Amino acid sequence: MAIFPTIKILTGLTVKNIKIANRKTSAAGYPMSRARATITKKEFTLKYVYVSSADKATVNAFFDTNQGLSFNLDNPDPTDTTIFTVIFGQDSLDWVYDNQGIGRWATSIIFQEV
């Protein structure tokens, strides 16, 4: 299974714990809820800035090859060595070029655990 490439400059990390529930309202107006699954999944949003053009090309090639497929992601939390099986949580990669300073790229990438 493919492994997402390591990019040196990770500047932001958001981790969501997702456990989906079925919710509805009773005829009397009371909320009702029950879990749809027993497992909590994670969603990661990784933010990169100051990415070189070479690293950008590497990520784009990986995205083109593995979009729609599952792959491994090393836990971006440096205190944990867990490897997650994930998919891309988006259909496109949006890159922003910073020409004011050192001429590097920035992006955010969403990964969803499967």
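[next item in queue]
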Amino acid sequence: MEPTGNYILKGEIYINDPGTCFICKKADLNSENKYCYDCGFPQMGEQEEQKAFYRDHLAKQVEFNEAVKNTKGVQSILFIASGLSVLSALILTALAESDKAFTFFGGIAMAGIFCGLGFWAKEKPLAASVTGVSIYLTAILISVIVTISEGGRGIGVGIMDVIIVVALFKGIFGALKAERFKKEKGWDWKMNS
């Protein structure tokens, strides 16, 4: 028995229901129009044109899913930065010879900022990523300046700092891509949650 509706089988696209788009499933298409008015699929086009559109659609879905993964990772990275700020505050307070309270509360305040950004990232990942990377880079720069001004030899930047900054930049690029797909295709990354 032959399947009904629109389907793909062994690389061939079959349109048995010209009123429903093969890609976006938009119903009530006009059989006189060659292209779906919602996604642009060549519903009444030639097989090769349909296959090319479908391949491009699948490639964009993979790219979109990667962008969503990077976007969702922002929240975790910001929470990790918050935890590292607490840990750093405890260690630096123990090592400090003076201004222990300033060192401790400065680190805790930084942890609070990153924790707040982590919660904000659920709704606004791009803004939270940009803010987070700006604050983190500023904190690193201040740390380097203080280290140099106190005659220290190390630059004060660790491997975790580099990992966090790179992950936040991946989040920025992921959020930008996800927003581009939302505008172009109507795909909302929050719907993939």
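[queue empty]
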